[in-house]
What does this fold into?
Amino acid sequence: MPLLASAELDQLIQYIIIGLSNGSLYALIALGYTMVYGIIELINFAHGDLFMLGSFLALTMLSWFGLDKGGSSASTFYISFSIAILLLAVPIFCAFVNAGVDYLIYKPLRQAPKLAPLVSAIGVSFIFMNIGLFWYGPVDVAFPSLVTREKVFPSSSIQFSYQALMVIAVTVPIMIALTVFVKYTNIGKAMRATAQNPTAAALMGIDVNRVISITFLLGGALAGVASVIYGLFNNTVSYQMGFQNGLYAFTAAVVGGIGNIPGAVLGGLLIGLVRSLGSGYIDEKWTEAMIFLILILILIFRPTGLLGARVREKV
Amino acid sequence: MSLLSIQDLKAGYGLIEVLHGISLEVHEGEIVAVIGANGAGKTTMLMTVSGCVPVRSGSIHFNGASITKQATCKLVQMGIAHAPEGRKIFPRLTVLENLQMGAFTRKDNQITSDLQKMYQYFPILEERKHQLGGTLSGGQQQMLAIARALMSRPKLLILDEPSLGLAPMIVKQILEVIRELNKTGMNGEVGKGMSVLLVEQNAHHALEISHRGYVMESGRITLSGPSQDLLKDKRVQEAYLGFE
It folds into this structure.
């Protein structure tokens, strides 16, 4: 006799697919938190709201393309082309906004006590949220469902939609590319070196300010990608979405071990799963409590996070 | 010819002035040692040369050009490499990646052959090349810090306390490499040696290996001259060489 009735199994797989899809979006956002923290030990509280602005830009651009009310009358080619443009333009926008904020606000505070840039980041978060409020108002806004929710395998009983496929097709290659970039390129190694010891990095001829700018550009771009995909997958955006998703992503970064890139991905996926399984089997209203309970438990037993620095350093 | 020239240098941290007017020269092909007690300002002087501590007054020239206000990251390309106090290797980069970071500014195709040279100087680094820097022993980390600095093919190698806390055998090995680099440089050509500015608490080692020496006390140079003379100097013997 099967352990689970087949309908229950389908249900479980369904929750896992949703969890992993949302989780990989949290992971993309978490990477921006973790990389910036790794380099300048700043928790960039404005990062979630940058993600929200990215979604809003995507929605505005869709209205330019005539797709903001849905794409029923447009050709598949036109829709794919528009999404491709979004996936190019929105990350560039987010990258430069992120690096611009760093240049104008955090950089002058680099030598100040750590609390100064932190409080400034909270301030930037509010500024972004207010921009979002002016942009689309205080209500939830529908984001067109341009990618169909139809099953990829129509004969299968599992609801694996084209939307979920899109999330995986975009996020997985990006995470692989980022890992390769950070591990094998000269700039990637310089980023890790700067994170571990900025003074020594400068003595190697590494322009630390440039590395910090590149980090903000990269983190912003990842949030930009996540914001477009989030809109297409969840079909609702609001000026407050940055706060909630930013909080999940930040938690993901801490759970995985802040400053650790694979850790952010793992943490993101984990939180996505907890959210969807928790909503499915327990109750939606408890999911946030569960996420933070897990955070607390992990921090009690592994204060450096799941994949945080485990190397014992000799001095 | 003077490769590095420091004139009446004053620098410090916050309200505290550490260097009260230091003048020092390193000529091409020389090993120059700076000795002095803990807290005399030796490391601060090196960090000021490297642009990590701002200059308050005075000047620093390298190879004829002023580097008084030069950004730290530009100095490597000018030909200065600095193996800092406490080694400051990258603990979560592999030994190989640490060495590659030393060659960060280089675009030439001799980086691989220079890596091989580092493995000849310090064979243990080749054995450990895929290990994380933070897992090396103190002596191995010091070798890595020196090799990493050498990977930029500097004209001037700055070494801050390379012998601190190391076993005598390893100190000997490191001093041997320094002497060889000074004689023939990295290409093994006699007369094209590397200049070295060496800061040490171990005055004996430092004066043995160097051509000239400076004695630093509370942010001032109190004595200087050929190292052989300093070794015979009564004041140096009493204060730094442990003679009664």
Summary: The mean pLDDT of chain A is 91.
